[in-house]
């Protein structure tokens, strides 16, 4: 009778935990969807402002006048509307995140009652202050864009050939230069869809008392694909962003410097020379903002150069806690892929026959998953012995589930041996 009551209690806790984790996953999906929508609308505003800048720039522009070729406000209106939509999604994003965190904390309290080793909830402690700062920064950055029917000439002191001059810039151009920070919002939103920031990764991070933030995701991705991240996610965006900002501040000074920044690739090439720490011998920026951009190019180039050397000679290591999360994510992923491939092969084999094309492809996929799983088999068994195996969200809450997982591992081992013999 006592055993039956215990079994019923475990079944009830399992179902209740499964329901709560499913709801938590849905809340997290809403949060990252809002962040992606915010990033998309913010960058649509950047695109509209770019078109407005190119259309309104006058070919008769010089360093001491701010002539504009067009007075159309269409693109500025689009930039304002998209920025307003992005601002709405900023508030929705943080609102959904707070709901998800509170629900996560309530779930942790329930799960801690069934654990011998409770989780340590770090969401409210570690993310509350940083979330507030990030929210303020996002709101301020979304308020910086070329406003319709609002513009002004801004003189900026400059020195050229031992002469003190004043360069003329439009307020809309300076606002447009600050809008390039929105590109980083898109990278951050896309990082939420990697395996290092999904719901499972965040639970691992909670267990090992580390944070599943963008920095952790970036370190995991660069540890797995170092050269690709350095080239695609760092070098190319840095060249484009810094090159276009340099063009904004140096294009009006073409009458002084003799450069041709009508073509954006010229500015990107100049930034490329400074990013490689070589410098452009016949380039001398006339404006103070352009000098600041060149200094940033040197700083970014130093970082990229250092990371490239570290990548070529050694791996970029995670710290101990993040390494545990990184390893567990891939172990769980390998086990889940093997189980999924096994069920797919069994289903297709029974439906179409063992020698059918679909079954053969499923068998090839299963063989690959077996090889992948065998590489991590011993470590997964060790995780089960140390009660660190969290194969799925349900296993973290139910007492006695470890035996079932060990039985599952034994069955998978038997399948792998069977397919090896075949």
Automatic annotation (TrEMBL):
One GO CC annotation: membrane
Superkingdom: Eukaryota
Entries under SUPFAM superfamilies matching the protein: Voltage-gated potassium channels
Signal peptide location: none
One Gene Ontology term of the molecular function aspect: small conductance calcium-activated potassium channel activity
Transmembrane segments: 36-53, 73-92, 133-150, 174-195, 225-246, 292-313
Keywords associated with the record: Membrane, Transmembrane, Transmembrane helix
Keyword Transmembrane helix applies: yes
UniProt protein name: Odorant receptor
Organism: Blepharisma stoltei
Lineage, top ranks: Eukaryota, Sar, Alveolata, Ciliophora, Postciliodesmatophora
């Amino acid at each position: 009778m006592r055993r039956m009551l215990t079994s019923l209690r475990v079944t009830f806790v399992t179902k209740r935990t499964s329901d709560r984790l499913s709801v938590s996953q849905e809340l997290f999906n809403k949060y990252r969807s809002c962040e992606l929508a915010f990033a998309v609308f913010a960058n649509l505003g950047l695109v509209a402002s770019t078109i407005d800048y190119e259309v309104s720039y006058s070919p008769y522009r010089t360093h001491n006048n701010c002539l504009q070729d067009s007075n159309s406000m269409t693109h500025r209106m689009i930039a304002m509307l998209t920025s307003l939509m992005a601002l709405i999604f900023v508030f929705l994003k943080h609102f959904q995140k707070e709901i998800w965190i509170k629900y996560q904390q309530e779930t942790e309290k329930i799960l801690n009652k069934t654990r011998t080793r409770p989780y340590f909830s770090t969401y409210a402690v570690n993310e509350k202050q940083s979330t507030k700062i990030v929210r303020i920064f996002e709101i301020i950055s979304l308020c910086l864009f070329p406003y319709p029917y609002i513009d002004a000439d801004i003189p900026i002191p400059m020195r050229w050939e031992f002469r003190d001059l004043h360069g003329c810039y439009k307020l809309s151009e300076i606002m447009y230069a600050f809008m390039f920070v929105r590109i980083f919002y898109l990278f951050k939103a896309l990082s939420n869809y990697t395996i290092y920031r999904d719901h499972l990764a965040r639970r691992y991070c909670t267990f090992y008392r580390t944070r599943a933030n963008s920095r952790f995701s970036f370190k995991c991705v660069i540890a797995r694909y170092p050269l690709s991240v350095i080239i695609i996610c760092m070098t190319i965006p840095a060249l484009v962003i810094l090159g276009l900002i340099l063009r904004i501040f140096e294009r009006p000074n073409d009458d002084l410097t003799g450069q041709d920044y009508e073509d954006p690739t010229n500015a990107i090439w100049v930034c490329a020379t400074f990013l490689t720490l070589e410098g452009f011998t016949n380039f001398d920026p006339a404006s103070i903002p352009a000098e600041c951009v060149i200094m940033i190019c040197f700083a970014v180039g130093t970082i990229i150069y250092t990371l490239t050397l570290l990548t070529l000679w050694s791996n970029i290591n995670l710290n101990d806690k993040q390494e545990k999360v990184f390893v567990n994510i891939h172990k769980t992923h390998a086990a889940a892929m093997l189980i999924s491939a096994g069920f797919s092969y069994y289903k297709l084999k029974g439906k179409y026959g063992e020698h059918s094309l679909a079954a053969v492809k499923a068998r090839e996929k299963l063989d690959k998953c077996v090889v992948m799983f065998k590489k991590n088999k011993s470590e997964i068994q060790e995780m089960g012995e140390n009660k660190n195996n969290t194969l799925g969200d349900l296993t973290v809450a139910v007492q006695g589930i470890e035996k079932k997982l060990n039985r599952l591992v034994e069955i998978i081992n038997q399948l792998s041996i069977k397919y090896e013999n075949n």
